[in-house]
C-alpha cells in the first residue's frame, strides 16, 4: 500500500494519538442528506467516520452494531430523521425503542456509552452532523481502541479476521 | 399437592378416554430421588404415571409445539406455562383450540439437590395460571407485586450498582463460560423460529466459534429477540448447564421496557402486542 | 404605577418560585392567564391580587410581592379555581403553598387569618379535638374583636351547641407527638 | 368498598356542638334504615383547612391517625362521616397514601401506626344515596314533604377536587336533589349548589363570609326555594346563624328580606320517617325552621293518603 | 465470480482537488472481483456515461461502482444509463467521494485513503447486488370520495372535470355537510347556502359523478390503483328513479321530530328532505319515526304520492366496486359541550346555545326565519354573551388544541347579532384572538367597531336568575371580576373529529393523532397524502380548518388523484422487503410493524419432513411496500430482508470497512 492513511500511521508508530474508526449508519432521507449538505457547505470534520447509507434508521439491526464492534470498529453512531419526520412514518419510532433498550443493554454489560450513540439529524442540520461526528470521534479517541475480547485481539494482530471465517475476502489489515 | 396429582390423573384419563385430547403432557418420576421429568401419554391407562410434587421443575409449555401435530394436546399449566402458552398463541405458533389446559395453582418448586426453592419460583408473579380450561385445586395468593419486584430486580439493581469495569468483567465471565449449547433456546416458549439466527450461515450474522465476542453476540441478540416477549418462566436459566444467570439479561430488558414504555408483563393475554413492535409519538426522547 | 424591572428578578427569586410550585405540585408555566380561576373565585373581591395575578407574579419570579400578598390568606380553599382550570393548574394548592412559605419567612399579611389558624392548631394539639367555644373566645381575645358573635353565644349555649365541657381525646400525648412530628419536617414532604 | 351498611364512624369535632342537629338527625335516619355506625375509638380532629395552611404534613397526619385507628378497630369497615370538611380531609389523606407505596409508608411513619389505606371514606350523603338505602328510606317513610321546594346546597368539600372526592358531578351534583325528591320534596334548579359559603372565614373574616352567604340566599330566593338543604355542619352554621344578621343589613339597605330556613338533608329525611323535631334537632336552629317543616308535613292531610295516614297512626 | 467495474469521477477538481483519484482507481483495481477500474473527468456527462457503456462491453462487466457525488444526486442518472445496457439498473453502487469526502477534507492525505475505503465498501456491497425488477400495477381510474361536504364536493368536481368517474359516499340523505348549515361565511359575509348549493347542484348534475346518500363504506381491500370497496346504501323507502321531488308527502306526514339540520330548534317530518335545497332533491323516510314502519299504521305518504314512489319494503343496498384512489373527506363535528361544561349549565339552560345553533337562528330559512330570538321564550335577546374556546384549549375538560376557526366565526356571530338587533350589547369572552388570514384581522376590528366588547378571560360560571343568564368572568386586562346579565349565551365550541374517524382511519390504514384527527403523511411536505398510497385527505378530517383551507386542500387532493390517474400503470418500488418462506415462522411481528399494511399472513400447505403441514407465512404486497425495512429488524430469524439493502450487503460493507 503506497498511501499510508493517518490511522495506520498512528497505529504503526504507536506514539501519535489514536485514531478511532467510527461507523455511522445514516438514513437516506434525513441524515444522509444532512451529511451531503455539510459537504456542500464545505464544512470540515474528522475523516474517522464512514457513513453507511440505509433507507431508514428503522432498518438498522442491533446485530449490525455488535458485529461492527466485534470486527474492529471503535464506535458506532446511528442517525435518522427526528421523530415525527420519518419518510416512512414510523421507522425512527421503532428504531428509538429498539436502540434505547439495546443501548442500555450494551452499557449494562460493560460497554462505554460513548461507543454506541444515536442522534436524530435532519436534512438541514449539516452543522449538527458535523458537530455530532466530531464529538463522537473525540469521545472515542479519549477512550482508546475498543478491545471487546483481549484474547481475540491478540490473535487478530497476528492473523486475518479470525472472528469471521465465512468471509471470502482476505483484506489487507 | 397429592390432591392435585390425583385430579390431574383423573382428568387426564377422562380426557384421553373421551377422545377430547390425543395426548396429555404432565410430569412423572425420574430416575433419581426427587427428580421428575416431562411425561407424554396417549392412553388413559397411563394416567397413573402422572406425578405432581414440589420437584416438577420443568416448564412444559414449549413441548406442546412438537406434539400438537398429532391432535389436540392436554397440558398441565401453572402460571409460567400458561403465560408461555399465551405467548405462543400470540406469536401464531399455536392456536388456543389446539390445546386443552389443565390449570394448576403452584406455590413454587424446589431444587432436587438443595431442597431450596428454585430461583425462578422466588420471582414468580403469577402463581395461578392466567389461562386454563379448568382449574385443578384452589387459587393461591400471589405475593404482593411491590415485594416480588424487589426480588425480581434485586440482581439487576446490584449489577447496575457496579462500576462499568466491574460489569464488563462480570459479564465477560458469564459470556466466556457459555458453551453455546443453546439449551436456553430449546426450552424457551418464546424461541419459536423455524431456523434460529445462530444456525444460519450468513456473513456477520453469528460466527460459529466459541469465543467471547461470539458468545456475547449470541447472548445479547438472544435477549434482543426475546426481551420484549419474555414471559419470565426462568426456564432458560434453569436449563443452562453452566448455571449462567440468563435472567439477569432478560430482566434488565424487561425492566427497561417497562420503565421506558410501560411494557408491563408479557404472556398475560394471547394478543400480539410486542413492545418493540409498537410506538407512541410521545415516547420518551433521549437521543435528540 | 411603578415600573417593575424584570431584569432585577434574581435567580434566588426564580428558584423560590420554583420551590413554591413544587410544593404545590404545580407548573406555573402551564397557566395561560385565562382568568377562569379568578372569575369564579368567591373571595376575589377581597383580594389585593386575584388568584390569576398571584400565579402571574410567580411566573415572572416577583416572589416577594406574592409572599406579601393578602390573597393567599383570604383564600377560602373552596377549590373552585382548581376544579375549573383548563390547564389543570392547582391554584388552591398554590395559594396554600405561598401562604406556608410566607409563614416560614415570618410574614403575616393577614393577621386575623393567621391568629385563627394558630389557635385552631394549638387547640387540636392540646386536646386532640377542636373546641369551638374556646376557639371563638380565644380568637376574639387575641384578635381584639372582643364582641364578635357574642350575641349568638347565649343562643348557642341554650341550644346545647356550646357548653362548659371541653372535648378531648383520651390519648392527648399521642396527638401532641403527632402534631409536633409533622411540624418538625419543616414543610418538606418526602 | 364494602357493601354492608356498617361503618366506622368519624363524628368530627362539631358533632355534639354546632353540628348537633346533624348528628341527631343522621343518627336517627341511620337507626331507622339499619345503617350501623361504630365510633372510631379516640378519633381526633381532622385538622381541616387550618392544618392545610399550617403544614402539608400535618394536614395528612391528623386525618390519617383516625383512619389508622378505624382500621385497627375493624379492617373491613369503610369510614363514614357527616361533616363535609372532615370527609374532604380524610379522603385527601387516604388519596395521598393510595398514590404510591412510598406515600403510604411515609404516612405510616408520620403517624407511627400501621395504615394500609385499603378502606374508603364516605359521606352520609353518599351512603344514603346508595340505591339500596334509597329503597330502605322509601320503605320507612310515613309521610312526604309534599312538594316542599328545596334548594340542595352541596358546598365545596363534598365535590372538589373530583379526583379526590370521587363523588357525583363536580358542577351539577344531583344526589341530594334525588334524596329530596325521593321523600316528596321538589328539588329546584339553582346556580349556587357548589359555590362557597365562606364557612372557613366564619370566625376570622365574618364580613367577607357574609357576602358569600348572602348570594346563596339570594339565588335560592330568586329560584323560589322554600328551604335550603345542606350536608355539612359548617355550611349549616354559616347559613343558619347568619340569616338574621343578613336580614338586618338588607333591611338597612332597603333590600327584600330572606325567609328560608336551612335544614340538614337528614332532618328532611327524618321528618318523613316520623322523627319528631326534637329527635331530629330541628328545634335547635337559629332561624326558625319548625313552622315551614310543619306546613310541609301537614300538607299531607290535604293530599289524603289513607295508607300513609295509617302508617303514621301506628 | 462477479466482474465489477469501478469508475472514479474527478468532478473537475471538485473531487480530484482533495482526492488522488488515479490512486483510488489503482487501489480499486486490486480489490477482489474488480475487473476494471478507471477515472473520468465527469462521470455524469454524456462522454462519461458513454465511457461506462463501452467499458461494460469491453470488459464484460456485470456490475459497476461509481465513485462520485452523492447517490442522492446521480444514482437515478446512472440507473437510467444502465437501463440502456445489458446490466440490470440495480447492479450499481455509488461511493460518495464528493459530498462526504473531498468536500469535507482539505488534505489529499486524508481524503484519498477515505475515498479508497468508501470504494471498498461499495465494491463489497455491489458484489451482493442482485438484479431487481419492478412490477406494474394497473390503475383503475375511478375515484371514491367519502363525505359529501364542501371538501368532498370540491374534490369530486375537480376529478370529474379532469375526466375521471367519481363516486361520493355521503352518510346523510343530502350533500352539503356542515357548510350548508351555516348562514354566512367570514370574512366576506357571502351567504353560505348561495355559494354552497350551486356546488351541490353541479355535483348532482355532473355526468362523471355518482352520488350514494345514506351510505357508508363497509370495507376496503386492495391497494393503490386497486381498492375494492364495499358500500352500504341504507334503505330510503323512496324510489329515486320515479320520485319527482314534489314534496307533497312531506307536507302530509303526521309525525314530527326534531330537525337535525336545524339543530333541534325546529321540527321535521318522518319523510323529509333535511333542507329545501337538498341534493338529491328527494325525500327519505326516517324508519325510526315513521308510523307505518313502526307499527304498520298510517302510510299517508304512499297515498298522496302522485307517482307511487313510496316503497315501504325497500332494503339496504350493498355494492362492491373497484376504485383507483380514495379521498377521505369525512369532516368534523362540534364537541358536545353539555356533557363537560356543568358550569355553563350542562345543557339545562335553553338560552345557552352552540355556535351552530346560532347559525340556524340567524339564517333566513332557519326556524325563526332569521330573527334572532331566544329559544326559551322567543323574545329578542338584548344582551348576548359569546364564549370562545369552549372545548378547545382546555386539556383538563376536553381538547388541548386551538380549534382555529372559532375566533373568526365568533366575530361573525357578534357582527350578525349587532347587525340584526338594535340597541343590543354583545360581549365576547376570549383567551387570545387568532386571526391569520386574508382580511381576517380587519374583520375582527370591524366587529369591534360594530360595538362588540371583547373581554379577555374565560367565563367561570353561568347562573340562571330571573330569566337572565349571569355570566361570571374576569376581565384579565382589568384584573377584576366582571359579570354580564345576558339574555342569551353562544358557546363557540371546538371542532372534533367525526364519530366515524377512528373506524374509517383503521379501515383505510390511516394513522390517527392523539385527538383522533386523521394524519397526513408529512406535516409540511405531504399534507394531503396519507401513509397509505392512493388514499388522500381533504378538509377538516385532518384537523380544524375553515372553508377556504378545506377547499384548497380538497383541490390539492383531487390533483394528487389526477396525477395518479394520468398513468395507466404504476411501477412498484424495486427495493422492497421480501420474505423467505422457508425461514418465516409466521409470528406476525412484521405485520404489526408495517406502516403501510403491506404485509399479510398467508396460509401455505407444504410437505415438511414428509408430513403435509399447513402454516402461515408473511407475504409482502409489492404495491404497498415502500422499502423502509423496519420489518426486517423485527424478524428474528431474518426471513424478512430488504432488496437493495440486504443484511448480507450491509454486513459486507461493515466487513469491508473494518479492514481499513
Q: How would you characterize the overall build of this protein?
A:
The complex is a heteropentamer of chains A (173), B (288), C (190), D (314) and E (660). With 288 residues, chain B is of the alpha/beta class. Chain B has 11 helices and 5 strands, in the order αββαβαβαβααααααα. Chain B has helices spanning 2-18, 63-67, 79-90, 119-122, 145-152, 154-160, 164-177, 183-187, 212-226, 235-239, 247-261, and strands spanning 23-29, 36-41, 73-77, 99-103, 134-135. Chain B has a 5-stranded mixed beta sheet. The model of chain B has no long low-confidence stretch (mean pLDDT 93). With 190 residues, chain C is mainly α. Chain C has 2 domains: 6-104, Fumarate Reductase Iron-sulfur Protein, Chain B, domain 2; 111-185, no CATH class. Helix content of chain C is 55%, strand content 0%. Chain C has helices at 11-24, 36-39, 51-60, 63-67, 71-74, 80-84, 91-104, 111-127, 132-143, 152-158, 172-184. Chain C is globular, with a radius of gyration of 19 Å. The model of chain C has no long low-confidence stretch (mean pLDDT 87). Chain D is of the alpha/beta class and 314 residues long. Chain D folds into 2 domains: 6-124, Glutathione S-transferase Yfyf (Class Pi), Chain A, domain 2 (Up-down Bundle); 142-304, Rossmann fold (3-Layer(aba) Sandwich). Helix content of chain D is 52%, strand content 9%. Chain D has helices spanning 20-33, 48-54, 56-73, 84-99, 101-111, 124-129, 131-140, 162-165, 175-182, 206-222, 233-240, 243-253, 265-272, 277-280, 290-303, 306-313; strands at 6-10, 36-39, 78-81, 121-123, 149-152, 186-187, 227-230, 262-264. Chain D starts with 5 loop residues before the first strand and ends with a helix. The relative contact order of chain D is 0.14. The chains are: A alpha/beta (173), B alpha/beta (288), C mainly alpha (190), D alpha/beta (314), E alpha/beta (660). The D-E interface holds D 169-172, 189, 191-192, 195, 219, 222-223 and E 341-343, 346, 348, 461-466, 470.
User: For the largest interface in this structure, which chains are involved and how many residues does each contribute?
Assistant: C-D, 63 and 56 residues
CATH second-level architecture of chain A: 3-Layer(aba) Sandwich
Estimate the helix proportion of chain D, in percent. 40-55%
CATH class of the largest domain in chain D: Alpha Beta
What is the third-level CATH name, the topology of the largest domain in chain D? Rossmann fold
Low-confidence stretches of chain A: 1-15, 159-173
In the sheet with the most strands of chain A, the strands line up as 2-1-3-4
End-to-end CA span of chain A:
11 Å
Amino acid at each position: 500500500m503506497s498511501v499510508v492513511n493517518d490511522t495506520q500511521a498512528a497505529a504503526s508508530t504507536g506514539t501519535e494519538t489514536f485514531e478511532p474508526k467510527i461507523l455511522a449508519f445514516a438514513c437516506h432521507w434525513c441524515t444522509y442528506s444532512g451529511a451531503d449538505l455539510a459537504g456542500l457547505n464545505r464544512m470540515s470534520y474528522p475523516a474517522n467516520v464512514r457513513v453507511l447509507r440505509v433507507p431508514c434508521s428503522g432498518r438498522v439491526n442491533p446485530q449490525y452494531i455488535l458485529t461492527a464492534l466485534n470486527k474492529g470498529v471503535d464506535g458506532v453512531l446511528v442517525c435518522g430523521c427526528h421523530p415525527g419526520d420519518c419518510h416512512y412514518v414510523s421507522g425512527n419510532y421503532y428504531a428509538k425503542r429498539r436502540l434505547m433498550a439495546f443501548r442500555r443493554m450494551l452499557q449494562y454489560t460493560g460497554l462505554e456509552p460513548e461507543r454506541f450513540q444515536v442522534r436524530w439529524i435532519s436534512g438541514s442540520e449539516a452543522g449538527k452532523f458535523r458537530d455530532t461526528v466530531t464529538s463522537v470521534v473525540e469521545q472515542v479517541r479519549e477512550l482508546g481502541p475498543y478491545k471487546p475480547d483481549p484474547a481475540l485481539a491478540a490473535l487478530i494482530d497476528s492473523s486475518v479476521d479470525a472472528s469471521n471465517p465465512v468471509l471470502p475476502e482476505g483484506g489487507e489489515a | 399437592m397429592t390432591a392435585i396429582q390425583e385430579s390431574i390423573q383423573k382428568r387426564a384419563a377422562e380426557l384421553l378416554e373421551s377422545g377430547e385430547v390425543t395426548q396429555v403432557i404432565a410430569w412423572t418420576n425420574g430416575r433419581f430421588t426427587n427428580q421428575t421429568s416431562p411425561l407424554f401419554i396417549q392412553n388413559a391407562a397411563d394416567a397413573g404415571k402422572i406425578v405432581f410434587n414440589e420437584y416438577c421443575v420443568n416448564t412444559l409449555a414449549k413441548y406442546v409445539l412438537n406434539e400438537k401435530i398429532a391432535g389436540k394436546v392436554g397440558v398441565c399449566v401453572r402460571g409460567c406455562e400458561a403465560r408461555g402458552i399465551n405467548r405462543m398463541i400470540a406469536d401464531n405458533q399455536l392456536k388456543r383450540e389446539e390445546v386443552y389446559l389443565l390449570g394448576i395453582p403452584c406455590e413454587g418448586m424446589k431444587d432436587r439437590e438443595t431442597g431450596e426453592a428454585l430461583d425462578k419460583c422466588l420471582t414468580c408473579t403469577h402463581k395461578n395460571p392466567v389461562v386454563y380450561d379448568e382449574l385443578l385445586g384452589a387459587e393461591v395468593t400471589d405475593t404482593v407485586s411491590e415485594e416480588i419486584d424487589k426480588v425480581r430486580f434485586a440482581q439487576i439493581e446490584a449489577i447496575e450498582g457496579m462500576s462499568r469495569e466491574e460489569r464488563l468483567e462480570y459479564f465477560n465471565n458469564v459470556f466466556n463460560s457459555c458453551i453455546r449449547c443453546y439449551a436456553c433456546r430449546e426450552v424457551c416458549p418464546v424461541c419459536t423460529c423455524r431456523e434460529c439466527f445462530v444456525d444460519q450461515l450468513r456473513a456477520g450474522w453469528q460466527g460459529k466459534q466459541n469465543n467471547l465476542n461470539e458468545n456475547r453476540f449470541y447472548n445479547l441478540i438472544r435477549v434482543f429477540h426475546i426481551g420484549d416477549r419474555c414471559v419470565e418462566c426462568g426456564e432458560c436459566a434453569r436449563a443452562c448447564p453452566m448455571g449462567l444467570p440468563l435472567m439477569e439479561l432478560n430482566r434488565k430488558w424487561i425492566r427497561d421496557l417497562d420503565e421506558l414504555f410501560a411494557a408491563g408483563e408479557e404472556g398475560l393475554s394471547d394478543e400480539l402486542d410486542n413492545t418493540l413492535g409498537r410506538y407512541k409519538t410521545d415516547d420518551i426522547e433521549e437521543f435528540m | 404605577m411603578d415600573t417593575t424591572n424584570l431584569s432585577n428578578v434574581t435567580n434566588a427569586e426564580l428558584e423560590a418560585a420554583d420551590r413554591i410550585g413544587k410544593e404545590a405540585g404545580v407548573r406555573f408555566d402551564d397557566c395561560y392567564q385565562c382568568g377562569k380561576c379568578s372569575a369564579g373565585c368567591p373571595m376575589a373581591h377581597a383580594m389585593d391580587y386575584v388568584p390569576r395575578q398571584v400565579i402571574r407574579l410567580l411566573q415572572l419570579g416577583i416572589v416577594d410581592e406574592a409572599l406579601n400578598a393578602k390573597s393567599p390568606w383570604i383564600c377560602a380553599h373552596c377549590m373552585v379555581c382548581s376544579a375549573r382550570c383548563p390547564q389543570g393548574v392547582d391554584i388552591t394548592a398554590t395559594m396554600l403553598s405561598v401562604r406556608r412559605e410566607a409563614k416560614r419567612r415570618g410574614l403575616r399579611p393577614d393577621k386575623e387569618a393567621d391568629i385563627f389558624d394558630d389557635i385552631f392548631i394549638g387547640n387540636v394539639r392540646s386536646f386532640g379535638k377542636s373546641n369551638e367555644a374556646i376557639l371563638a373566645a380565644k380568637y376574639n381575645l387575641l384578635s381584639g374583636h372582643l364582641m364578635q358573635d357574642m350575641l349568638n353565644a347565649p343562643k348557642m349555649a341554650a341550644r346545647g351547641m356550646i357548653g362548659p365541657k371541653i372535648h378531648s381525646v383520651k390519648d392527648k400525648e399521642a396527638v401532641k407527638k403527632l402534631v409536633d412530628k409533622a411540624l418538625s419536617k419543616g414543610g418538606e414532604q418526602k | 368498598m364494602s357493601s354492608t351498611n356498617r361503618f366506622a364512624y368519624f363524628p368530627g369535632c362539631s358533632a355534639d356542638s354546632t353540628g348537633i342537629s346533624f348528628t341527631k338527625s343522621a343518627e336517627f335516619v341511620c337507626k331507622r334504615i339499619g345503617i350501623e355506625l361504630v365510633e372510631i375509638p379516640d378519633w381526633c380532629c381532622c385538622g381541616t383547612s387550618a392544618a392545610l395552611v399550617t403544614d402539608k404534613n400535618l394536614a395528612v397526619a391528623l386525618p390519617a391517625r383516625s383512619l389508622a385507628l378505624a382500621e385497627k378497630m375493624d379492617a373491613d369497615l369503610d369510614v363514614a362521616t357527616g361533616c363535609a370538611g372532615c370527609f374532604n380531609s380524610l379522603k385527601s389523606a387516604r388519596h395521598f397514601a393510595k398514590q404510591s407505596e412510598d406515600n403510604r409508608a411515609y404516612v405510616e411513619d408520620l403517624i407511627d401506626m400501621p395504615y394500609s389505606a385499603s378502606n374508603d371514606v364516605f359521606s352520609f350523603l353518599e351512603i344514603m344515596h346508595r340505591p339500596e338505602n334509597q329503597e330502605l328510606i322509601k320503605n320507612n317513610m310515613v309521610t312526604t314533604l309534599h312538594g316542599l321546594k328545596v334548594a340542595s346546597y352541596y358546598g365545596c368539600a363534598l365535590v372538589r377536587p373530583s379526583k379526590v372526592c370521587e363523588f357525583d358531578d363536580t358542577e351539577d351534583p344531583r344526589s341530594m336533589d334525588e334524596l329530596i325528591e325521593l321523600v316528596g320534596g321538589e328539588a329546584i334548579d339553582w346556580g349556587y349548589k357548589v359555590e362557597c359559603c365562606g364557612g372557613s372565614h366564619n370566625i376570622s373574616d365574618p364580613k367577607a363570609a357574609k357576602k358569600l352567604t348572602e348570594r346563596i340566599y339570594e339565588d335560592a330566593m330568586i329560584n323560589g326555594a322554600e328551604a335550603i338543604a345542606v350536608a355539612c355542619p359548617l355550611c349549616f352554621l354559616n347559613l343558619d346563624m347568619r340569616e338574621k344578621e343578613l336580614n338586618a343589613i338588607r333591611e338597612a339597605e332597603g333590600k327584600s328580606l330572606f325567609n328560608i330556613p336551612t335544614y340538614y338533608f337528614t332532618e328532611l329525611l327524618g321528618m318523613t320517617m316520623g322523627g319528631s323535631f326534637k329527635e331530629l334537632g330541628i328545634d335547635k336552629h337559629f332561624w326558625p325552621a319548625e313552622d315551614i317543616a310543619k306546613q310541609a308535613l301537614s300538607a299531607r292531610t290535604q293530599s289524603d293518603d289513607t295508607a300513609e295516614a295509617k302508617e303514621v297512626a301506628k | 465470480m462477479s466482474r465489477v467495474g469501478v469508475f472514479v469521477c474527478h468532478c473537475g477538481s471538485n473531487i480530484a482537488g482533495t482526492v488522488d483519484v488515479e490512486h483510488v482507481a489503482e487501489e480499486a483495481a486490486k480489490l477482489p472481483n474488480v475487473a476494471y477500474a478507471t477515472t473520468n473527468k465527469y462521470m455524469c456527462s454524456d462522454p462519461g456515461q458513454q465511457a461506462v457503456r463501452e467499458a461494460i462491453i469491453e470488459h464484460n462487466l456485470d456490475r459497476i461502482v461509481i465513485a462520485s457525488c452523492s447517490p442522492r444526486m446521480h444514482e437515478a442518472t446512472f440507473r437510467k444509463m444502465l437501463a440502456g445496457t445489458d446490466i440490470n439498473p440495480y447492479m450499481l453502487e455509488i461511493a460518495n467521494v464528493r459530498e462526504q469526502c473531498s468536500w469535507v477534507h482539505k488534505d489529499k492525505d486524508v481524503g484519498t485513503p477515505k475515498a479508497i475505503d468508501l470504494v471498498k465498501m461499495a465494491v463489497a456491497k455491489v458484489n451482493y447486488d442482485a438484479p431487481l425488477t419492478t412490477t406494474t400495477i394497473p390503475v383503475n381510474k375511478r375515484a371514491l370520495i367519502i363525505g359529501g361536504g364542501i371538501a368532498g364536493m370540491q374534490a369530486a368536481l375537480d376529478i370529474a372535470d379532469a375526466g375521471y368517474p367519481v363516486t361520493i359516499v355521503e352518510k346523510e340523505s343530502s350533500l352539503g355537510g356542515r357548510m350548508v348549515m351555516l348562514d354566512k361565511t367570514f370574512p366576506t359575509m357571502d351567504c353560505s347556502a348561495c355559494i354552497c348549493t350551486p356546488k351541490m347542484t353541479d355535483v348532482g348534475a355532473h355526468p362523471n359523478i355518482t352520488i350514494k346518500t345514506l351510505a357508508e363504506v363497509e370495507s376496503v381491500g386492495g391497494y393503490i390503483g386497486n381498492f375494492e370497496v364495499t358500500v352500504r346504501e341504507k334503505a330510503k323507502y323512496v324510489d329515486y328513479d320515479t320520485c319527482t321531488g314534489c314534496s307533497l308527502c312531506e307536507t302530509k306526514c303526521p309525525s314530527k321530530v326534531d330537525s337535525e339540520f336545524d339543530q333541534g330548534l325546529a321540527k321535521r317530518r318522518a319523510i323529509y328532505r333535511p333542507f329545501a335545497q337538498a341534493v338529491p332533491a328527494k325525500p327519505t323516510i326516517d324508519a325510526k319515526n315513521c308510523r307505518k314502519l313502526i307499527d304498520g299504521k298510517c302510510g299517508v305518504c304512499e297515498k298522496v304520492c302522485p307517482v307511487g314512489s313510496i316503497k315501504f319494503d325497500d332494503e339496504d343496498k350493498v355494492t362492491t366496486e373497484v376504485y383507483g384512489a380514495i379521498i377521505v373527506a369525512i369532516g368534523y363535528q362540534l364537541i358536545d359541550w353539555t356533557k363537560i361544561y356543568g358550569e355553563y349549565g350542562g345543557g339545562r339552560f335553553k338560552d345557552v346555545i352552540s355556535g351552530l345553533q346560532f347559525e340556524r337562528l340567524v339564517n333566513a330559512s332557519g326556524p325563526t326565519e332569521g330573527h334572532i330570538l331566544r329559544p326559551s321564550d322567543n323574545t329578542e335577546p338584548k344582551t348576548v354573551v359569546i364564549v370562545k374556546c369552549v372545548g378547545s384549549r382546555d386539556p383538563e375538560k376536553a381538547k388541548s388544541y386551538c380549534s382555529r376557526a372559532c375566533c373568526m366565526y365568533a366575530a361573525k356571530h357578534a357582527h350578525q347579532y349587532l347587525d340584526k338587533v338594535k340597541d343590543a350589547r354583545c360581549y365576547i369572552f376570549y383567551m387570545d384572538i387568532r386571526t391569520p388570514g386574508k382580511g381576517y384581522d380587519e374583520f375582527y376590528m370591524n366587529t369591534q367597531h360594530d360595538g362588540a366588547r371583547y373581554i379577555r378571560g374565560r367565563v367561570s360560571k353561568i347562573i340562571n336568575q330571573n330569566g337572565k343568564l349571569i355570566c361570571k368572568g374576569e376581565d384579565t386586562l382589568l384584573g377584576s371580576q366582571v359579570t354580564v346579565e345576558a339574555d342569551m349565551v353562544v358557546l363557540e365550541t371546538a371542532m372534533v373529529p367525526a364519530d366515524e374517524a377512528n373506524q374509517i382511519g383503521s379501515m383505510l390504514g390511516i394513522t390517527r393523532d392523539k385527538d383522533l384527527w386523521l394524519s397526513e403523511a408529512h406535516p409540511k411536505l405531504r399534507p394531503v397524502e396519507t401513509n397509505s398510497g392512493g388514499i388522500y385527505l381533504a378538509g377538516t378530517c385532518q384537523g380544524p380548518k375553515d372553508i377556504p383551507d378545506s377547499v384548497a386542500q380538497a383541490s390539492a387532493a383531487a390533483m394528487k388523484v389526477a396525477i395518479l390517474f394520468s398513468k395507466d400503470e404504476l411501477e412498484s418500488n424495486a427495493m422492497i422487503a421480501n420474505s423467505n418462506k422457508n425461514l418465516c415462522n409466521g409470528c406476525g411481528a412484521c405485520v404489526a410493524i408495517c406502516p403501510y399494511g403491506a404485509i399479510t399472513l398467508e396460509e401455505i400447505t407444504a410437505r415438511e419432513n414428509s408430513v403435509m403441514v399447513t402454516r402461515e407465512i408473511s407475504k409482502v404486497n409489492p404495491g404497498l411496500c415502500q422499502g423502509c425495512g423496519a420489518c426486517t429488524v423485527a424478524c428474528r430469524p431474518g426471513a424478512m430482508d430488504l432488496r437493495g439493502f440486504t443484511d448480507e450487503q450491509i454486513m459486507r460493507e461493515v466487513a469491508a470497512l473494518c479492514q481499513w
